[in-house]
Write a structure and sequence with these properties.
This protein has a single domain, classed as 2-Layer Sandwich (Alpha-Beta Plaits). The relative contact order is 0.35. It has two helices and four strands, in the order βαββαβ. By secondary structure, it is an alpha+beta fold. It starts with a strand and ends in a 6-residue tail after the last strand. Bound molecules: iron/sulfur cluster (SF4) (2 copies). The site of one iron/sulfur cluster has 14 residues, from helix 2.
Length: 61
């Protein structure tokens, strides 16, 4: 899933613009990701100038 570090985000909007599936939204100054739309492509993670986004892997034990 896409991890969002709200405290780092400066609300530049770049990730929202580049996301191919429009999975990202700014709601009341909080960036949200619709996990059903997100392809985990990583484009937003690479773009973000303040490293507020990260792709987290989940492993089942
Ligand atoms: S990982 Fe890709 S699909 Fe998911 S929110 Fe970021 S740019 Fe959009
Ligand atoms: S690119 Fe980074 S700083 Fe800009 S809105 Fe997205 S998460 Fe926030």
């Amino acid at each position: 899933m896409l991890e969002i570090y709200q405290e780092k985000c400066i609300h530049c909007g770049g990730c929202i613009t580049l996301c191919p599936t429009e999975a990202l939204l700014l709601l009341e100054d909080k960036l949200t990701c619709d996990e059903e739309l997100c392809l985990l492509c990583g484009d937003c993670v690479i773009f973000c100038p303040v490293e507020a986004l990260e792709l987290a892997c989940e492993y089942q034990v």
